[in-house]
User: Which sequence fits this backbone?
């Protein structure tokens, strides 16, 4: 048995690596995809184009504008002189935000009255609009607090700060709230999923198209040996991609890796059982490589969207949340992010690991049963 499996492994490795372009697809392109997508997929907003409409034109209004521009979140693209210009700037998509400071702003502040500032935000992209609004509220709240403290100190006749609640927030695992730290581990999972699915989905179909499937069917090889011979080479390639992309995430993007490499590889092994088994299942159901590729993408995109990679599962309808429980990508994503950012071990991730192991074993068992029918 081991000799037959060894011969299958040699054949698969020769088929995969004899084409130089295939070596590029397996190792170089996943790294490029991780780097490009890692930069592209981010929720952070930097230097949002901003229109400045200052009707007060006082030292305090200029102080507020300076705070906006010095924060790094906003970049002035125009200084406006009328409401029509502000509307045109937003309509044409040249600005994400317009800061409008009404006349009498400084006078109202000095008199202790409520001073009004209007923030006009382009809500076409609701996510960016919400983030920009939160930045603006944070800056306005900081200035408002300083003004209140100064007024109270002036009323009390001293410069001492009045007693107040001192809230100090401490963020664990992602101190600077960098969204890239959250997305890059997910990108690694998505790229590994796509590579292994595509490789295995083509495996049996390629045998059918080049005419070697009939020769394999008449050999003494069993269904289990055939499945192992097809899966082991791509599993080794999957492990290599996991290691390489993890190094890219850590040393290129600076994402902290606080967990165990061994635990990551163990979880990757369980997960690769599902992707490789699913790819072989697609391969047995397809007659051509084009059909296999299309079927792979029909499986891949719903799995990615229902994994929590980009959209929180808690925000999905209850029925959809139940569907995500059958998605192995969801569980592996939880494990990878926890290992990268939290540094937790198997005592915390045992449930996810058990689910991945059960899904992987069930997938391989089903594929082996199907190959029994095919090779009989």
Assistant:
């Amino acid at each position: 048995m081991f000799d037959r499996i060894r011969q299958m492994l040699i054949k698969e490795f020769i088929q995969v690596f004899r084409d130089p372009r295939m070596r590029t697809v397996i190792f170089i392109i996943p790294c490029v995809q991780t780097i490009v997508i890692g930069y592209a997929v981010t929720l952070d907003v930097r230097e949002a184009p901003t229109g400045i409409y200052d009707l007060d034109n006082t030292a305090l209004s200029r102080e507020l504008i300076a705070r906006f521009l010095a924060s790094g979140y906003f970049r002035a693209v125009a200084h406006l002189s009328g409401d029509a210009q502000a509307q045109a700037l937003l309509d044409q998509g040249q600005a994400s935000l317009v800061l409008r400071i009404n006349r009498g702003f400084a006078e109202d502040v000095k008199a202790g009255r409520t001073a009004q500032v209007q923030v006009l935000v382009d809500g076409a992209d609701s996510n960016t609009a919400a983030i920009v609004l939160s930045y603006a509220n944070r800056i306005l709240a900081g200035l408002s607090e300083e003004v209140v403290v100064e007024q109270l100190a002036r009323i009390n006749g001293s410069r001492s700060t009045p007693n107040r609640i001192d809230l100090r927030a401490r963020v664990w695992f992602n101190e600077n709230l960098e969204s890239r730290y959250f997305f890059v581990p997910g990108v690694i999972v998505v790229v590994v999923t796509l590579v292994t699915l595509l490789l295995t989905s083509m495996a049996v179909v390629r045998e059918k198209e080049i005419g070697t499937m009939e020769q394999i069917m008449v050999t003494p090889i069993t269904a289990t040996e055939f499945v192992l011979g097809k899966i082991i080479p791509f599993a080794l390639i999957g492990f290599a991609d996991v290691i390489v992309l993890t190094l890219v995430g850590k040393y290129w993007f600076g994402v902290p890796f606080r967990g165990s490499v061994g635990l990551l590889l163990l979880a990757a092994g369980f997960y690769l059982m599902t992707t490789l088994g699913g790819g072989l299942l697609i391969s047995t159901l397809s007659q051509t490589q084009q059909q296999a590729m299309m079927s792979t993408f029909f499986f891949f995109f719903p799995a990615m969207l229902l994994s929590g990679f980009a959209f929180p599962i808690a925000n999905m309808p209850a029925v959809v949340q139940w569907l995500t429980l059958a998605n192995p990508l969801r569980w592996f994503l939880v494990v990878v992010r926890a290992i990268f950012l939290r540094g937790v071990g198997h005592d915390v991730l045992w449930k996810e690991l058990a689910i991945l192991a059960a899904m992987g074993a069930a997938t391989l068992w089903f594929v082996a049963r199907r190959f029994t029918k095919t090779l009989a």
